[in-house]
Structures are given as C-alpha cells and as structure tokens.
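User: Hi! Is it possible to get a structure for several chains at once, not just one? Here's what I have:
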Amino acid sequence: MRRELLEQPFTPAQIRQRKGRNGMLDYVEGHTVIQRLNEALEGEWSFEIMHHEVREEEVLVVGKLSAGPVVKMAFGGSQVTRERESGGVVSLGDDLKAAATDALKKCATFLGVGLHLYADKPIGGRAPAPRPSAAAPTRVPPVGPRPPVSSPAGPRPPAGSAVNGTRPAGGATDHRAPGPASARQLDAIHKVARAKGLDDQAVEHMSLRVFNRKLDALTQREAAGLLKELSNLKRRVA
Amino acid sequence: MVPPEMRQQPHVSFSQLDQYLRCPLKYRFTYVDRVAPDFVPAALAFGSGIHGAAAFFLRGIQQGQVPSLEDVLGYFEGYWNLETQHKPIRFGEKDTKASLLDLAARMLDVLYRSREPGTEVVAVEQAFDVPLVDQETGELLDRNLVGALDLVERDAEGRLVVVDLKTSARKYSDLQVEASLQLSVYSYATAMNGLADQEDLRLRFDVLTKTKQPELCRYWTQRDRAANLRLFRLAAEILHAIEAGVFVPNAGWQCRDCQFRSRCWAWK
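Assistant: Yes, the chains can be modeled jointly so their relative placement is included. Here is the combined structure:
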C-alpha cells in the first residue's frame, strides 16, 4: 500500500464542484477514486455492498472496502430520481449504483484518498512556503523542457528599446523560480479564475487543496502551476 | 476601441505583434520612436470609417433602435469629411475623396442588407485586457494582451460568435483565415474573458470587398489550445526581440503604402 500516493491531493482538473446544502462542494468523480486506488494499491483491493435499502426519496447502501488486512466500511446514499412530469421512478438501479459509488468514495477517504477536499485549512502540518530574501535569490533546475523566455544572462535592451514606448520589464515571469509568487501572478490567477466562473474563495480553496497553502503563500512555481490549471479549466457556468 | 486606461499599462496587442511581424523597423518608428507619419494612406482612413459606420449600425441593432441606411451612410460621410479635411490623406492613383465615398456607400449598403435573421448582437467593439498565459507551463507574460472585438454575436443556436470586419480589395483565401493571428488573439481573449469556452466559440471574418459590386464574404473558423500555445510563444519571442533591440526593415508589398518610407530609406 503506497500511502503517499493514496493521500496525494488531486489536481484542480480532477476536482469538480456542485451545489450542496451549505454552498459549493468540491468532489472527485468515482472513476478518479478508482484510478487512485488501482495505482496506490496496485489493483489489490475489493469493494462489496454489505446492505442496501430503498426508501421513499433515497437509497442507502453500506459498502466495504478491503485492501489486504485493511477493511473500511461506510454508508453511501443517493436521491431517488423521478420523472419530472409523472413522478415515476426513472431507474432504481442507477440510484443504487450512485449510492455505491458514494460509499466507495467515503471508504476511500478513510485510507486518505481525497481527504484534503474536506479540510478548510492545510492538513499534515506543512510549513508555509519559504520566502527567500530578494537579496539572495536561488535558482532551481528547470522543470520544463523549454528555456525561459527571458533570462538574466540574456541580451540587455539597448537604451530606447521599448514596448508601448516604455522599456519592458523582462518578457515573462520566471515561473520556475522558487521565490514567492509575484503580485502579477496573483492578479492573473484571480482574473483567470473569475473568467472561469470561480470566485476568490473558490480559488483560495483550490490553492489550499492542491498546494496545502493559502494563495498569498504560494511560490512562483506553485502559482504558475495554479495558473496553468486554471487557464485549462472549462468555465463553470452558474 | 480600447479604453485609454488599458493602453496606459504596459501591454501587448494584436496590432503590435502584427506590425512587428510585417516590418520590425516600422514597429520601431510607430511604437518606440513614436514618429509622426508622413501621411495617412487613404485605405487606412477608409477602413476606419467603414468600421465606425458598421459599429454605429450594430450598436443601433443591439439597442433595438436600428438606424436607417441613410443614417449609416451619413455617419461615414461625416467621418470621411473630417478625416480628409484634417489629416494628410494620400490617395491611390485611381482613388479620390468622392470615389471612395461612393464606394463606401455601396459597401455599407451590402453590409446593411446582410444581417442574418435570428442572430443577437451581444457586444460591439468589446474591449479586453487579459493575462497571457502559457497553458502548458503556467508561465505568465509580463504584460497583458489588450484589444477590442469588432462584434460579438449569438447565433440562432445560442452559440457565441466573434466577428472581425475587414475591408479588402479581394476575397480571402482559406489559408488567410486558418493562419490568422488576429483570430487566434480574439479566440484566446474571449475565453480568458469568460465569455465562452474556446471549443464552443466560433470565429468569423466578415470581408467587405472593395470591388465595383461589393460583396460580403463570411469565413468561419475556430481555434484550439494549440493555437493558444503558439500565440504565447510568438508574443514572447517578439517581445524578446524588441527587448534585444532587433528592428530590421522588411522590404515587400507592405512598403507601397508605408508612411515611414523616407525614414526607412535613410536607415542604415
């Protein structure tokens, strides 16, 4: 059992949102959890429905997740889906399957899968991002295949060269630097997030989930990662 | 029109990128040295007038008060008179102020009669100011991408369409449409502005031909994530070249109407 992999936070692209009783809820889809279990337990796991119950408006199941000697049990539930016009039941089978998936996901959280989705503050006691002083910056080895757009060793602009009539500040933010995220990165994160239908609170949650840090504690590299994920997201239309 | 407050911040626009690609030296004269041009090509002023009249017409539709064709032509004529009186317009061999006014009337007549039924005007000259992000690495360009969309429409099926109006001596080729950097910029900006997801967004060039019998040719296309990556790379490389002071002349067909030709010949 690879516990680190079980507990590894999901990426923003894997996390979905839906309306819950107390506002928006983050969740991951069943197949994402199954994939994580397969990877971390190398397929050595099984899931059984120990009990199921059909009520007027909901179905309930009790699921059991086994991985070697480790056994976790949990309830799962789903609303009974009815025809809008007639009020007739659409498919109890599908409702029970949804309840089973719910139970599986709940069992998986006992193993640490997606646990970060339930936290409203950093879990695991990770320290905030180091904020090196500006006087002593350190460079990290490149993480991407491409060279940076602008490098300190690159050619310097001659006097008078300009973009929009002002001397440019150096091309692009060095997204590989380990220092704190720049104000420009944070501003871009908020801007892109709003374009994708996420409010500031949702972005804070995303930062917390993925990097275990609040937005203003992100490093440049982490901010670039978040910006990448956000820019690739589909819009969440209310 | 891009609001002045957007222009005041360091930014990058399609016009800048396009200008640099066409002729880096002309870019320098325009954006770095800010040299006053020797003259204004008639085609440039004419195109601006058609754009202005089209925007006047489309805004009317958007507000539910469709102007008459006479009003639209009147808009152009007013603009044209002002431009030709106050700017050093240089006409082509066969063009005069009157001949171009006549051509504009025929072109605007075609435009006026070519509205697709069932389409809704969502925005006219919609400004944008969005961060330019490499979607592969999260790298952020140190200036925003700014500009304005001529027209944003919603078609009869409810899909968003970004339209750019062009005046041109001839019809466009497929390659011109597919390779257009301008539409890549607009597609990226629209998605980053939250107006639509890129895969749901349709793009269109409306080309009004400056022929004896003008036509309105519509060219549809779309852009994808690969186009965004290419746009980022292109913008970054161009900014890098500008930063390095690379401003070489690029002689070609674009020299014919160039307002800086005398300076260019003096360049060495």
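The domain at 3-125 of chain A is CATH 3.30.390.80 (Enolase-like; domain 1). The interface with chain B takes residues 144, 146, 148-150, 154-155, 157-158, 160-166, 168-173, 175, 184-185, 187-188, 191-192, 194-197, 223-229, 231-232, 234-235 of chain A (CB under 8 Å).

User: Great, thank you!
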